[in-house]
Amino acid sequence: MLFFTQCFGAVLDLIHLRFQHYKAKRVFSAAGQLVCVVNPTHSLKYAPTRCASAQTSVEQGVLPTCHHHEAAHDPQLVPCTCPLFSCPWEGHLEVVVSHLRQTHRINILQGAEIVFLATDMHLPAPTDWIIMHSCLGHQFLLVLRKQEKYEGHPQFFATMMLIGTPTQADNFTYRLELNRNQRRLKWEATPRSVLECIDSVISDGDCLVLNTSLAQLFSDNGSLAIGIAITTSKVHNAEDEM
Amino acid sequence: MLFFTQCFGAVLDLIHLRFQHYKAKRVFSAAGQLVCVVNPTHSLKYAPTRCASAQTSVEQGVLPTCHHHEAAHDPQLVPCTCPLFSCPWEGHLEVVVSHLRQTHRINILQGAEIVFLATDMHLPAPTDWIIMHSCLGHQFLLVLRKQEKYEGHPQFFATMMLIGTPTQADNFTYRLELNRNQRRLKWEATPRSVLECIDSVISDGDCLVLNTSLAQLFSDNGSLAIGIAITTSKVHNAEDEM
């Protein structure tokens, strides 16, 4: 009996996921755009004034230390760049993607234009929605964060970071687009490098910023669909790629 | 001697104005776009929780009453729609523009695409920057407001309102665009009618909202250039025009 109840629950979840997928496709009607449903991760131990020192059930037992601004002993090594978790991992930039996939279970999507569908926007701050995006021969990290920069007034911050150096990041432009109910909001900028701290990007406000009321206007049944596009802003320099 | 000092001051002001004009043209490099330098108006008695009841030196002696939500005795008459001032004036929709120009000294600009250059963005809230925009056979009111929706955290709100009925407003789409330093922010929406209260538009957050930090990123030497474009979103209905 319990087995059947669980099966029924799983089927309902699948229908709900399929329905959200359909809704996002309807909003971004461009054919062939990949829609990715991204579930939130609530950061239990998040400290807004410093680098992310979150610790979730997935990552229990990991030291709550922030490495983002600390100099790595070996200049070839970079600390874990996942903005969600404090993680003692260090490694070469080339293996950051596999670390984020395997250890932090962050999905990776292919395609120049994708739709990021963040669910459960009503959840209290601090909450993050994260995916990786593989495009133009590089990997990008899209972070949507709900945070109370001013106490009692949660805001949404969305930004894209290149899993690469700041020099490589300068070659790209990313665009985030919200489109619903005869309203459209577009943000275009150069991505930051994951070597920079995500928290400083958010505290500088140098990203797409949404008040709760504006986020609600663009949300559909608690989910926010963000269209993402990445283009090259410069001719690639072979040296920059190294 | 005093005369020469004043003349010198006036010349300096003109050079400064010309320089700002040039800067805005440089930012919005599209040829033929009209740049309008808009100076701020500080609202001394502004009450954020209700309709604008400001009283400035220009308007001293005017009753500080808000008419925006009160029913006019004659349904053909509308109250003064200027969001800056509380004004006891009532008149037909057709003469609102001349009232705003003559009594409130609000400039009117022609052209489908213009650049609104708001000066002195650093001034404390509440502050407004207003112009009228004549385009596609209609007049629009562009309002940029600096307001502390949350105490101690001023934000900028920009919106466009049609000097016409809500049915007429539905025929248009307005776009506000900020573009500076490899960053671009675009807001597109249907304008509201001036018959609706500007304060409710702002408290709903249904407009372009900028945090102080984001406004600073787009500002150049204390001035914010906003590109404005208006298009028709529907085929005009002859009945709606009446």
Write the layout of secondary structure elements.
The structure is a homodimer of 242-residue chains.
Chain A lengths: L1 H26 L6 E5 L2 E2 L34 E3 L10 E3 L3 H7 L5 E3 L2 E6 L8 E9 L2 E13 L2 E10 L3 H4 L2 E9 L2 E7 L2 E2 L4 H7 L3 E4 H7 L5 E9 L5 H4 L1
Parallel strand pairs in A: 1-6, 5-7, 9-12
Antiparallel strand pairs in A: 2-7, 3-4, 6-14, 7-8, 8-9, 9-13, 10-11, 10-14
Description:
Chains A, B: It comes from Turnix velox (Little buttonquail). The structure is a homodimer of 242-residue chains. Chain A is an alpha+beta fold. Chain A has a domain at 29-40 and 78-232: Sandwich (Apoptosis, Tumor Necrosis Factor Receptor Associated Protein 2, Chain A), CATH 2.60.210. Chain A is 23% helix and 35% strand. Chain A is built from six helices and 14 strands. In chain A, a hairpin with a 2-residue loop joins strand 8 and strand 9 (153-162). Chain A is globular. Chain A starts with a helix and ends with a helix. In chain A, 36% of the residues are buried. At the A-B interface, strand 11, strand 13 and helix 5 of A face strand 11, strand 13 and helix 5 of B. Strand 11 of chain A pairs antiparallel with strand 11 of chain B.
